[in-house]
Amino acid sequence: MSLTFAPTESKDAIALHLVPSDAVAPWAEGLPKAASDWFARLGFSGAPGQAMLAPDGNGGFIAAAGYGSAEQRKRSRSPLAAAAATLPEGTYRLETDLEPDAANEAALSWLLAGYRFDRYKSATAQKAALIAPAGVDAGRIEAIASGEALTRDLINTPASDMGPDELEDAARALASEFGADIDVTAGNTLLEKNFPLIHAVGRASPRAPRLIDMRWGQDGPAITLVGKGVCFDTGGLNLKPGASMGLMKKDMGGAAHVLGLARTIMALGLRIRLRVLVPAAENSVSGNAFRPGDVLTARNGKTIEINNTDAEGRLVLADALAYAGEETPDRVISMATLTGAARVAVGPDIAPFFTDDEDLADALSAAARRMADPVWRLPFHDPYEALIEPAIADLDNAPKGGFAGAITAALFLRRFAAPVSSYTHFDIYAWNANGAPGRPVGALQQGARAILGAIEDSLS
């Protein structure tokens, strides 16, 4: 699909007005009489999501389109997506002045309304097109939409067609498109190069585990993105029940997020030294699967007692984070579909993050508001460190008790990010269970726009 704006020189573009319900009368008075009468006759009230077209009275051409949007913007993450889905075929030009952030949000929501996952089933393309609103950087919004489309496509693809090898293929295609360097360590070579946890998690699957390492950019701050790439998670020997296994194709959502974000960063040509690390594996069941009670040794020498093989994401991330820290980049950011506790804390729509970097925390919160990408900071609560320290090893991968699961998982990961001075972890859900305009049921990107905005702010 092509998530792009219509050419600015498009002829016969229809004027699209965003009309709050308390301003319908004065707005209508400024229209040609035929259009004003039409809206009044058909009862246009500016109700949230109401869309209506009016003729100009001269041969049946469309004079204007009205869309009730004021309350809609308060209740919807994608304020203009409903209009894109509702309005008939045509090219539209936004005639309502919006603040810059609101204009960017509206423009992006229109493009995302055009997203379709049609690999296995034909889907009707969106027929309504929009000229980029005044003041909107069309190329930037298109790059953001394209990055999110990549993230959604990767997550939506079932595990039968998105294993570690296919995830590698996607990373290689992205690297080729933007001239990035890529290196992959797979199978038993992981042991030879000291990535024992990635190997342990993936060794029970016939699809070899691997570490994908992509680099791009020569100048600017060094930023490393690490994304959990567990392409399917059975839970291992601590087998998940069927209901919990049904969505596990999305357990590589962290990998999909960092690849989609990398796509946007490279398309925008941001002046950073970008590195993307994806530990990719399938957590399967076989005779050589790692077991509850095993003690594994990570890349950095820390020992880990395995108390639940279904807490495997933090294991693959541990090796990747230790590897990332060996170069001491300016910032390391990890993204993972890691804990159900994060969803209990903030629900499926908000991406919680953890960091000790106060400046970055403020920048992420500000960027999240500006870019309509809600995030919420949770604490690296040091007194909980004792919860991840078992009796016979340095660390416990699944502390008992069930309390503060998102925090203890983040504390576990922080142990491996040293000596990096700025480490941030996002515990994302990456899925939308309830369809909405611009946000269909299926894969969802979370937190990536907030990270992008914070990076852009740091470069300005």
Automatic annotation (TrEMBL):
Keywords: Aminopeptidase, Hydrolase, Manganese, Protease. The keyword Ribosomal protein does not apply. Residues 308-315 form the Cytosol aminopeptidase domain. InterPro entries: Leucine_aapep/pepB, Macro_dom-like, Peptidase_M17_C, Peptidase_M17_N_1. The keyword Hydrolase applies. It comes from the Bacteria. One of its GO terms (molecular function) is aminopeptidase activity. Belongs to the peptidase M17 family. This is Leucyl aminopeptidase family protein.
